[in-house]
Amino acid sequence: MSAPPFFDITARDAAARAGRIHTRNGVIETPAFAPVATFGAVRGVAPEELGAVGAQILLANTYHLHERPGEALIEAQGGLHGFTGWRGPWLTDSGGFQVTSMADRLVIDEDGVTFTSPLDGVRRQLTPERAIAVQEALGADIAMALDECRPADASGEAGDSASLRVRAAMERTLRWAERCRAARRCDTSALFGIVQGGVSEPLRRDSARATAELGFDGYAHGGLGLGEDPERRCGLLAAANAELPDALPRYLMGIGPPAEILDAVAAGVDLFDCVIPTRHGRHGVLFTSRGLLKLRNARFRDDGGPPDPDCDCATCARHSRAYLHHLLRVNEALGARLASVHNLRFTLGLLEEARRAIAAGRFDAFRRGVR
Amino acid sequence: MSAPPFFDITARDAAARAGRIHTRNGVIETPAFAPVATFGAVRGVAPEELGAVGAQILLANTYHLHERPGEALIEAQGGLHGFTGWRGPWLTDSGGFQVTSMADRLVIDEDGVTFTSPLDGVRRQLTPERAIAVQEALGADIAMALDECRPADASGEAGDSASLRVRAAMERTLRWAERCRAARRCDTSALFGIVQGGVSEPLRRDSARATAELGFDGYAHGGLGLGEDPERRCGLLAAANAELPDALPRYLMGIGPPAEILDAVAAGVDLFDCVIPTRHGRHGVLFTSRGLLKLRNARFRDDGGPPDPDCDCATCARHSRAYLHHLLRVNEALGARLASVHNLRFTLGLLEEARRAIAAGRFDAFRRGVR
Predict the structure, then answer these.
(1) Confidence band (pLDDT; 50, 70, 90) for A4?
(2) How far, CA to CA in Å, does A30 sit from each of A89, A187, A268, B204?
(3) Alpha-carbon distance A61 to nearest alpha carbon in chain B (angstroms)
(4) Which residues contact A241 (CB under 8 A, 6 or more apart)?
(5) Which residues of chain A make contact with B325, given a CB cutoff of 8 A?
(6) Are A156 and A162 in contact (CB under 8 A)?
């Protein structure tokens, strides 16, 4: 019996696909959502709870873990799997986006990103080679190539100077992607290339084609979810996907609102991550089958019903809106935790339903029903 | 078959006792420890985890819940049991100690305690009758009479003015205890009287004798753990216990360090509560079979061993000192939660062992081994 391929597609419904990503630490049924465990823990939620809500893979932030506690320590403690107790697959970002958004005195040149750490004030450099070395030390099942995100002010319309900067960043991302491929030292991590190109369809198409020519285990859509219109985003995803190998997984980074996830699935995306289920949870905002519920609102003060009557999570089985409202109002940590568990279950359950709908050939009807 | 008594003693070992408190929501094997759920939740810990670590009864703070969300709301949501999801027994304090330590512009007179709420600036009054009404609305299985704590600066040495104030507070506590008895409207809560008298043995003996004469379902030792020498405290407990009915439970309020709990058990105390397992947990201080472990300390940075190798809790089964050190250092909420779960299990396990040791007639040897 030969080893299974990294990805196999089990069902299609128009451009949407259902499939399986095979890693040495487990299989991920796609389309899939990776909860974010920035520092190696999903805020306030334990590994066994993540299993209970249906998580299959977690995302850790390479830059945060590089700063604290450092990848060498995590490697010595058995990688992310041994260190954190989450034994399933781990996805890591490259650290590039986090450095760009968090660090001071940023200089981006051909070599890499040089920055001053906000933690200790020390000047450091993140290169493509370093990004791969750190992710391999963390024990990532899926690692990401280092990319240069488009400048946040760039519209990407042809001919203006912002557009030139977006093109330059996209082209540098390609050169860095090639260096990342060459820097791989272990064959236990899959490596994904990243499509850039701002909000320009031609640029993103060029980026996808050239990244695919380099050859990766999967492909991510980067630099999106930064304020662009969600409808325009669907066009950008579809245009790039048309240039990517059909047989390999596609990952949309950092997008979490339910309707936006489903639209991207319809455009052929297989994998997602986002902080929104836990961030919304901490703020008392719940995803439910009837829309967003802002549980800190006074009208939930004496509402004895479950947060979401259609949800099968531990929070909805055991606790009322009134209790969560109270816990959130008095800033009791259990409130954020219970709300986060529900939001994770809602998001992961949504993707379970999406997989079933794709297999049954009724994904479009399902997607329209969620609006 | 007749109903069981409120308390039955199943074993004795010198002055230590093992027994059972029977409430309508469950039996509490004593000596027992009640984790503190100030606002109706043990900080960051869910009801099912409390069951898993062996909790039998929780303590809620009446004053906090009176302010937010209010006892009327909790009563309408099925009392603390229905509102919080902890279906086992609930113990409530009277609110007196919390008001005294938290509120502004405090005036204590024969009627009760008048204060300005730090929450909304409104002037309120807590009387013995009100303390009972609030606790009954909360659905307490064990309620406490309103007491006047000794002034914090009072040494209680005979003859000085502080001593006179301590005696006056003790005597007022007796009059309030009588009013609390008369104010009971439901027979589903047990009511405990509170022994006061500062650190004066004669005063505490007088207080115990007079409180016992009034007649309660159990008796608490109040106003201790406020800086007095633990050895002196044992003398005070023994002196008061000698005046209390042997057949009824005795509760030492607010004391949590393991050795101090066991010393009080040796003096005949049956019930405890304290915030220390969760407060220490949030600060990364763990009780272990080898003494206190300050997990934020740099020496635990790469310690892959379990927090306490002799512990059977979920935290010790699944996570390392290095992981907890990291989570605590980056202020990740899961760290406080995992440490709190361990400290609760340690404390509750200690009392399980104490019960077994009393039943086997080897409590003194057990107690000496814990030092």
Answers:
(1) confident
(2) 13, 22, 11, 69
(3) 13
(4) A15, A208, A250, A267, A268, A269
(5) 69
(6) yes
Is the pLDDT at A154 greater than 60? The verdict is no
Cα gap A56→A48, rounded to integer Å: 12
CB contact under 8 A, B322 and A77: yes
Contact present, B220 and B193 (Cβ < 8 Å): yes
d(CA B40, CA A304): 15
Give catalytic residue positions of B.
93, 273
Separation of alpha carbons A245 and A282, rounded Å: 39
pLDDT confidence tier of residue A186, bands split at 50, 70 and 90: confident
Q: Are A165 and A154 within 8 A, CB to CB?
A: yes
pLDDT confidence of residue B315: 98
* Residue A53 to residue B266: CA distance in whole angstroms: 46
Q: Note if A217 is an active site residue.
A: no
Q: Alpha-carbon distance A211 to B194, whole Å?
A: 75
Please state, in angstroms and rounded to a whole number, the distance separating the CA atoms of residues A262 and A16: 9
How far apart CA B269 and CA B246 sit, in angstroms, is 11
What residue ranges define each of the domains in chain A, with the CATH number in brackets?
A: 7-30+61-274 (3.20.20.105), 276-360 (no CATH)
Q: Average pLDDT for residues A79-97, to the nearest whole number?
A: 97
Check whether A247 has a pLDDT greater than 70: yes
Other C-beta atoms lying within 10 Å of the C-beta of residue A120: 9
Cis peptide before A47 (omega within 30 of 0): no
Q: Among B43, B326, B329, B337, which would you mutate to test the A interface (most chain A Cβ atoms within 10 Å of its Cβ)?
A: B326
Position A352 scores a pLDDT of 98
Cβ atoms of A147 and A222 within 8 Å: the answer is yes
* Cα–Cα distance measured from residue A202 to residue A90, given in angstroms and rounded to the nearest whole number: 32
Measured CA to CA, the distance from residue A364 to residue B14 in angstroms comes to 75
CA-based nearest distance A84→chain B, Å:
6
Whether residues B83 and A320 touch (CB distance < 8 A) is answered with: yes
pLDDT of residue B161: 80
Three-state helix/strand/coil letters over A337-371? HHHHHHHHHHHHHHHHHHHHHHHCCCHHHHHHHHC
In sequence order, what E strands does A164-322 have? 190-195, 218-221, 250-252, 271-274, 285-286, 293-294
* Chain B partners within 8 Å of A337 (Cβ): 44, 46, 333, 337
The verdict on a CB contact (< 8 Å) between B334 and A42 is yes
Angstrom CA distances, A106 to A96, A101, B33, stand at: 11, 10, 54
Residue A251 has pLDDT above 60, yes or no: yes
Q: Which residues of chain B have pLDDT under 70?
A: 1-2, 150-159
The DSSP H or E segment spanning B143 is: strand B142-144
Chain-centroid distance of CA A146 in Å reads: 15
pLDDT for res A149:
78
Nearest to B163 by CA among B193, B206, B219, B192: B206
Q: What is the ipTM score, two decimals?
A: 0.96
| Mean pLDDT of chain A, nearest integer | 95
Q: Is residue A194 over pLDDT 80?
A: yes
Q: What is the pLDDT of residue B68?
A: 97
Predicted local confidence at residue A155, as pLDDT:
52
The position carrying tokens 């959130």 is A328
> B181-192: b or e for each residue (b if 16 or more CB lie within 10 Å)?
bebeeeeebbbb
Distance set, CA B303 to CA A201, B326, B343 (Å): 50, 11, 19
Which one of the listed residues A13, A206, A263, A273 is annotated catalytic?
A273
